[in-house]
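anyone seen this seq b4? input:
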Amino acid sequence: MNTIKCLIVDDEPLARELIVGYCNHLPALEVADVCGNALDAKRILKEKEINLLFLDIQLPVLDGIGFLNTLKNPPQVIMTTAYKEYAVHAFDLAVCDYLVKPFSLERFIIAVDKAMERLGTPSKSEGKGIPGDGYFFIRTDGKIYRIEYADLLFAEANGNYTKIITTGASLMPAMSFVSLEKMLPPQQFIKVHRSFIVNKAKIDRIEGNRIIVNQHEIPIGKNFREDFLNRLGL
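predicted toks r here
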């Protein structure tokens, strides 16, 4: 992906202008459209290819969180709002980042870098690959956990939950497997089965149709095997 096409949704003209100005500082971003409410945003998403959505929470008629709940396959999302208290709800929806107004260009760039990681586009500041301090947040058992990409061994679908296995913990957040998949950099994490994603840097060995990761056995799905081996250069 050479250019990230962005949609800015905010009911405040000055806020829209600020984000447009920030986007213009980053060559990788292209502002595809701007609008002031969720209904217009939904129409634009149907008409145009949008990779990244800058979404205000306080919107007329339908707020940003309610709008996200209506989308089956949303693009990457960076929330923008003047209210800190919505952060937990935003991370439940697997957004890239949460910007509290007024936010600086520096903070904006940090959020965009996170989106670029998920989209598989290396940021100019990071170069190729995944930075060692890359991370994301999940909420479970009334707490919010920071998960380092480098510590995540694999993830497994479990109904309405997703089992996340790291080097030091096993967590079961109430989030869909698809939502977690969107949060992980595709150049580092590979879907090897309809119910499993693995960190390729943590693979110890492959035995037939099984992957061994830190003594865990993970099946390789028949429909995923060829792509998996190709991603390993085999």
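The helical segments are 13-24, 38-47, 64-69, 87-92, 105-119, 177-183, 225-231. The chain has two domains: 4-119, 151-231. kinda curious what u guys think
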